[in-house]
Each structure stands twice: as C-alpha cells, then as structure tokens.
Amino acid sequence: MVINATYLAQRTRSSMNWNDAKQRVMRSYREWLRAAPEIQTMYGLNMPVSAIRTKIRQEFERHRYVNDIQVADQLIFQAHMEYQETLNYWKQLSHVLKYFRAEEDPRARLPRNFMTGFLEGRN
Q1: pTM of the predicted protein model
Q2: Is 15 left (phi over 0), alpha (psi -120 to 50) or beta?
C-alpha cells in the first residue's frame, strides 16, 4: 500500500460569512457520515455503523452553538484533520475507540468511593 500524504488534504481557509461556514460544516458532516462504514471496516470496530454515525452526530452537536466565526473555522479545520487522519489510517485503534469510552459520556456516573472504582477497573 502506497502512503500518499496529500490524500484528502485541503487548503485551510476562512469562511466569508456564516452561510459559508454552515455549508462547510454540513459538507464535513456528510463526509464523516459517508465514511462511517469504511471506518468500521478499516479499524475492525465491533459496533454497528449506526453507533458510529450517532457518535459522529454527537461530536458535531457538541459545538452547535458556537458564536464566533473564527472558532467555527478552527473547529472545521480540526474536523477535517481528524477525518484525514482517520481515513488515511494514521490513527491506531485506541485513538478511534477513545470516542466511545464510557468516561467520555458526560452523564457517566462517578464511583461512590475509591474501592468501588477500583473494583470496576477505573483508575
């Protein structure tokens, strides 16, 4: 397999206005959703494609109410960088699985005490 560092590469650019930023976000979101089956196959994920797509949506929804266009541009750039690294197989399985850890869920409960957490395998 030949490694092509420019595969999926894009030039960084700033959005001209909010409509432009919205179009770029939607394009990025659709690219991620279309790539979900390929991500599942490449990394051998033991979960359905629908769970991967749900997690992608959650990650995009997390930044839904950003009000600064420069911050939005930075988030778009980071999303594309993650997309390129994921599809070029520059990430290891642990990097992909970190998005699905229970600790990343904001509703995840903390252990009641040290011993309970220790026995559950939490550090």
Answers
A1: 0.77
A2: beta
Token reading at 77: 């750039």
Q: Which of 91, 100, 83, 89 lies closest to 24 in space, CA to CA?
A: 83
The closest alpha carbon to 60, from 84, 35, 78, belongs to: 78
Nearest-angstrom CA–CA distance, 116 and 78: 37
Token couple for 111: 């252990």
Place of tokens 């839904």: 64
Cα 120 to chain centroid distance, Å, stands at 27
Q: What is the pLDDT of residues 94-111, one digit of tens each?
A: 889 888 876 556 666 677
Total residue count of the chain as it appears in this document: 123
Start-to-end Cα distance in the chain: 39
> What DSSP line would sit under 6-59, residue for residue?
TTT-------SSHHHHHHHHHHHHHHHHHHHHHHHHHHT-SS-HHHHHHHHHHH
Q: Is 72 exposed, middle or buried (0-12, 13-18, 19+ CB in 10 A)?
A: buried
